[in-house]
Amino acid sequence: MSAGHPLSVPLEPPTCDDRAVWDVWLSRLELPAVTVADELGLFSLLAQGAATAPEVAARLELGARGAEALLAVNAALGFLVQRGGRFGLAEPARHFLLPGGDFYWGGMLQRDRFSALHQDLRKALGRDAHPEQEPDTRLAAAWASGQIDEAQARRTTEAMHAHSFPAAMGVARHGDFAGVTRLLDVAGGSGCFPIALAQRYPGLRCTVMELPEVCLLAAEYITRYGVAAQVDTHGANMFTHPWPRDYDAIFFSNIFHDWDAPRCRHLAQQSSAVLPSGGRIYLHEILLADAKDGPLPAALFSMAMLIANYGKQFSFGELEALLTGCGFVDVQATLTYGYYSLISARKP
Ligand SMILES: C[S@@+](CC[C@H](N)C(=O)[O-])C[C@H]1O[C@@H](n2cnc3c(N)ncnc32)[C@H](O)[C@@H]1O
Which atom from ligand 1 is nearest to the alpha carbon of 153? Predict the structure, then answer.
């Protein structure tokens, strides 16, 4: 984006949500989820009897995240059914996905084992089974070390802005920010959430805490949308640098889904340490069902995190347990826009 002229009027939200674009974007992972399950023998395994995710992980030598994502996507696609925590075959899998069956689609599915995404998913599942192995994408390494180059920062920030700005407008319209006066957006990317919130709440002050290279880009967006009097930036590595205080709300969008459990706990504990009593934490995420059998966009997004990052999509129950484990109370979730929910909790 070029900074251009500041826009003097608040932006109107889109008149529809963006689920149609999300569906197309995520659909690329549907076929690999099935071709990899076919190659691993998931359907044959479940033909012997329904199994829990840990049982599938043990039998197929998968990690917990990998088994969860593979089962969730195949359940959401209608190939598996989940009952009481056990996954079994649904009719379409019984007819078309069992090797040796008269109507087995294997001949066709096997042709896709050479696709880049099939290979990426296989590699990611292999890594996930060995937690000491890091994701091998350059971006994941840059984020973990806090060292990002300028071109990487620009590419990622532009992509994240496109992906998140509509949802930011939804958060500003439908989230509950009553009583919030100063909000810290941790790893806030382009600043799209503070921009939307500042336009909606003229009395609100926000700070985008980001890697320094990304702060430079966020400043351009903040100027472009005319909210520089309300929104500033703070360059920091969120894992190694001290966090600023004086905020009554800490906001994370698409951050917990990037990281493993210890790093998510660290982010929640750090939030609790710098918030005053009564302060709020917000997590903006696409939620998996507690049964981990969908919905399809959350399951596919979780698979994307498995391939590229350390994280996964969480269920509300998992986030509630994480936040209460770090001392937060009153954990609530509201659907704010498209597939996204805003989870909030209070420091007692
Ligand atoms: C998935 S993007 C989310 C951006 C934004 N919150 C959104 O929802 O559009 C993850 C963001 O985390 C930032 N990030 C990654 N590692 C970081 C670190 N160690 N310290 C601070 N920010 C980091 C990246 O620069 C990136 O903007």
Answer: 25
The full set of domains in the chain, from first to last, is 28-134 (1.10.10.10), 140-346 (3.40.50.150)
Q: Would you please indicate which residues are annotated as catalytic (active-site) residues? A: 257
Q: Where are the beta strands (DSSP E) in the chain?
A: 80-83, 86-89, 182-186, 205-210, 231-235, 249-253, 280-285, 329-337, 340-346
Task: Look at residues 239, 240, 252, 187 and name the one whose alpha carbon lies nearest to residue 215.
Answer: 187
pLDDT at 204: 98
Give ligand 1 pocket residues (Cβ under 6 A).
143, 146, 160, 164, 187-189, 210-211, 214, 237-239, 253-255, 258
Residue 76, both tokens: 């959401």
pLDDT attached to residue 132? 74
Model confidence band, residue 3 (pLDDT cutoffs 50, 70, 90): very low
Look-up of token digits 């959401």: 76
Cite the DSSP H helix spans in 238-287.
261-274
Residues 6+ apart with CB under 8 A from 53: 64, 67, 68, 71, 85, 87, 292
Question: What mean pLDDT is predicted for residues 11-18?
Answer: 93
Cα dihedral 37→41→42→45 (10° resolution): 170
Q: Is the CB of residue 166 less than 8 Å from the CB of residue 14?
A: yes
pTM confidence score = 0.96
Name the phi and psi angles at 82, rounded to 5. -110, 125
Going across the sheet that includes 205-210, the strands are: 231-235, 205-210, 182-186, 249-253, 280-285, 340-346, 329-337
Single out the residue of 283, 306, 287 nearest to residue 193, CA to CA: 283
Mean pLDDT, the chain, rounded, equals: 95
Kindly give the distance from the C-alpha atom of residue 313 to the centroid of ligand 1, in angstroms, as a whole number.
16
